[in-house]
Known about the structure:
Layout: E1 8-12, E2 26-30, H1 32-45, H2 48-53, E3 61-64, E4 71-83, E5 87-92, E6 96-101, E7 103-113, E8 116-138, E9 141-160, H3 167-202, E10 206-210, E11 214-220, E12 225-226, E13 231-241, E14 246-247, E15 264-269, H4 270-280, E16 286-289, H5 298-308, E17 323-337, E18 340-353, E19 361-379, E20 382-398, H6 410-420, H7 422-429, E21 433-434, E22 447-451, E23 454-458
Parallel strand pairs: 1-8
Antiparallel strand pairs: 1-6, 2-13, 2-15, 3-4, 4-7, 5-6, 7-8, 8-9, 10-11, 11-13, 12-13, 13-14, 15-23, 16-17, 17-18, 18-19, 19-20, 20-21, 22-23
Amino acid sequence: MMMLKTFGIILFCGLLSPSEEVLSGLSCAVSPGAMQNVLSDAILQNGLLQQHLQGLVLPNIMGEGGLLNSPTSITGLHLVKVHLPGLTVALLPGVGVQLTIAAKLELRGNCLLGLLSELISIFLDVNITATVKCTNFDSGTVHVVTEDCLCIFGAVKIKLLSGLLSLSIDEIVLNKLTATLPSLLCPVVDIVINLVSIQVLGTLNSVIPLGAAGTIHYQLASLPFTSGLFLVLDLDGAVKQVGGSVIPHDSSPSALPLMLDKLLVMGLRQSFLNAVLLLLIQIPPQTFSCTPEAFSSASLLQEALMSMAPAGCSTCQGTSPLSVSLTLSGNPLIFLEENKATLELSVMIQVSLTPLDGPILNFLLLKADLGLNVHVSIAGGRLMLGLSLGSTSFSLESSEVGISNISSLKPHCSSLLVEKFLPLINAALGVGIPLPNVMGIALAKAEIRILGGLLVILV
C-alpha cells in the first residue's frame, strides 16, 4: 500500500505586511479553522468539485498482463464517483493558505481480456496540489490566478467480476492514469478554485443600505496576507450619504487581539464608527410646549424658570406655557476606551415665551453636553448601539430676561433630555450598523471587546 501524500492548494494572496498598507475602517483576522469550514462547505459539502468531475472521460488503456499475458484493453473509462473524506487548511506565513484534500476516484469501463469482455471498476487515491495567487489589486478587487497544478497518486485497486487480472495490470493502469489524469483534473480544479474565489471574495465587496440615510460600501483595502496564525483582511468602509457624498474618516494602525480559539476577529475603528454615527444621528429640531403632556417634569421646569425671572420682568409673569426647542449641535462622537464606549454630543435647549401683545421672548438658551453610555450587541449581522445617560454638563449661552444662575434647572433639564431627546437618538440607531459578511462566517454568539480606539468582535 503506497503512502498517500497530501493534496494541497496554495492560496497565495499577497506578501504585504500590515505596516506597508494604510489600515482603513476595519480589519479582520480569519483562522485556519474558519477557512477550513468555508472552503469545505464550498468545495465539498455543496458538491462543487464532484459536480465538475462527474462524468470525466479518460483515454483508453492498452497493455499486456491479463490471463496468460494476453493483450488487455480498457475502453470507455469514465469517472462515476468522487469520495472526498475531508479538507484541512494550514496558513503559510507570507505565502498564503494551504488547502489539503485526500480524494478517491471511482472509475468504470469495459475491459477486454483476449476474447473476454466484462465491466471493470478502478479505485484510485489521488492528491492534487495547485498554487493560487491573488494579484493585481485595484479598487477593492483582486485577480485570482491558478499555477503549478500537480497530481500525486496513491494506491490503485481494480475489481473485475472474473478476477482474471494479474498484479501487472495494476501497474499498467496506474502508470497510464498517472500520465493522463493530471491534464484532466487540473483544469477542473482551476474552474472550481475560480468559482470559489468569486464566491468568497464577493463577501468582501458589498454595498449595504444604512436605513434611509445612505449606504456603507465594504471592499478590500489591500491584498490579503497571512501571518501563520490567521489570514488578515483590511477592509475599507466607505460611508456614503444619499446622493453619493462620502463621509471621510481617518484611519490608524490598530493591533487586533490574539485569536486563541476564535474563528474570526473583526476590529472596527473609532473613526469609522464616528462616520457611521454622523450619518445615522440626524435629529431634526424638536419644539413643543412646556406642559405635563409633553414631558413629566414640565411643571417643575416652568416653576423653576419663573422663580428665576427678575422681579421687574412683567412679560415673564404671563400664564401662557413656555415653548421648548431641542436642537442637536455639532457632530456626535464615540470614544472607545478599555472596556468602555461613550458617545458625546451637544444639545441646545431654548426656552421661549410668546406674549399676547409682543414678540417672542428668549427666556434662556442652554447648551447641554451629554456623555452617553453605549451598550453594544450583535443582532442579525448588525452592530446594535443602545444609549443611556451617563453625564450632563450645562452652560448658559444667553438670556433676554437676565437669568444668570442655572444650577436649579439642571435636574429638570436632564429629565427633559432623557424623556424627549434620548429616545430619538436610540430610534435613529435602531437600524443598527450593518457588518460585512466576511466569507459568510456567521456572527452568532459573538463576543465583543472594547479597546482603546477599537471595537473588537470575536466569533
